[in-house]
Fold this protein.
Amino acid sequence: MRQLRVDYETRLVEEVVLRAVAGHPDEGEFRRVRDQLYELGEADERDRAFCTFHGQWFERLGMCQPVEEALAERPLVLAQVRRCAVVRARNKKEEGAELFVSPDPATGRAIGLQLRPESLLVPDQLLGFLRHEVLHLADMLDPAFGYEPALKIPEEGMAHRMVQDRYRVLWDTTIDGRLTREGRAPDRVRQRRLLDFARAFPMLGAGAEEHFARFFDGTDLTHAQLVACARDPVQALGLPQLVDRRCPLCTFPSYSFEPDPESLSPVLVRRIQEHFPAWRPAQGICRQCADLYRGRQTAAVPATA
């Protein structure tokens, strides 16, 4: 099997090592040898020496172990990817893995992995996160899953966003279900995914857990099946047809509408009307659209006179 090369960004390695070595039993040795490097005369030589030194301590402190272990668990990834570049993430939201495919066959596929320095300092938690991310990559490389980078869906606006959110929840559910069966999932992941699933599919009501199990415990699910359920859960899950009441925002039929839309906060109403100027609370809104807009209230909305 071809060896997957893992390269770490120099500044990430240095920052992680400086944090990890603080208070370590070998910190004295580290400081003594590192201080000697400042005596090197040539700037380029000194920079290379620091880079090599920090890289050696990065391995010595076991900072590379979670990445190597998560990749080693997926032979499909090892077989099809040539290189993994690990770079510094500015914040938690940026953390994650991406798959890059070069048009040049000689270059092949590569993984871009963004991580915060503090994540590398908590290896057990990081391994759980990486296992989830790398299994996503394995699905993308698996012909049986049939992954396509762009969701081929005709919906636009809020409807498109809703389908994307549903697809993400479904895929995450299948990922963590497989990790659970392998004994590689974090504690209580099933309950956390069930909560996400119930929020994404409020029309399921009390039946959410039963339908959730089809994805969490299911095998051989494909990209196309997840897209079909995200677009039309009623048909995909074999639910009774809804009464033809559609949300005026996403245009999807729904069992679950906001019970008292007239009591929505003025801030939330204005935020919705920024995208749907003709909408009024009396027209109603499904709970999922209302929750999406509640989640977007990260900036203050100016009060009207």
